User: What shape does this take?
Amino acid sequence: MLKIAYHPRYNHPLPPGHRFPMEKYELLPKQLLYEGTCSEKNFFKPDFASEEYILNVHDTDYFNRLKNLELSKKEIRQSGFPLSKELVDREMIIAGGTIKSVLYSLENGISFNIAGGTHHAYTDRAEGFCLLHDQAIAARYLQQHKLAQKILIVDLDVHQGNGTAEIFQDDPSVFTFSMHGKGNYPFKKEQSDLDIEVPDGSGDATYLKLLKDTLPGLIEQENPDFIFYLSGVDILETDKLGRLSCSINGCKERDRFVLQTCHDLEIPVQCSMGGGYSKEIRFIIDAHANTYRLAKEIYF
Assistant: This one.
């Protein structure tokens, strides 16, 4: 059965006019239930990630200052969010959801977190709407419990996974692959194990060719026994922050290729949603929902 981490606290209230679309975390499960892609049995309510697992990734001083709401004004500004206990709790619940998800992936081949994909969070700082790195925390969990030896992180959000690159820069057991917009944030990029910078305005054909020419060979080369997939939908032409001009069908084909590849090679995959900032929320929800529709079609 497809299992999906969802918690009501994912939809954290933000000040009026804030550009981050928190409402998508409430609307997406409603859409999946309404259309019959999922039932209530598919969803589970995650717990807080243990501090032990968080500290496998994040600096102790940073995490203590974060949970005690002691970040500097500059650090809070870099995070993109007004800091609050509720927000820190939300990030710990998201990380807990991704940890639990990987166990379902090992059991069923695939799992999802409605939130997550917090790939801008560094070892020692928050950045770009990301305070704690959920997939990195879950990757370390897999390693600690000897559930995976070689991990591949496939990050197809329009923004480079700079935090992912920094966290795993000296760890050959985790291969970081980021395919992102060349002209997009972050403007000072880190070095992943493999970075592909996609030119502005590339569109479906160029984007999909780059992905299809890269991913199978990369998997053959690295031979991972677990894959994390960050399936951001900010590659869409409707996205306010993305510049790649991909259609919703192109985004769906991207997800189909990644999930079909993982399925055919029998490599467990955990999917976190990542970004999506289209002006009309319906485009964000439909694009994200496609990923779940495809998972059900391919796996179940």
Summary: The mean pLDDT is 97. The longest helix spans residues 85-108. The chain has one domain: 3-299.
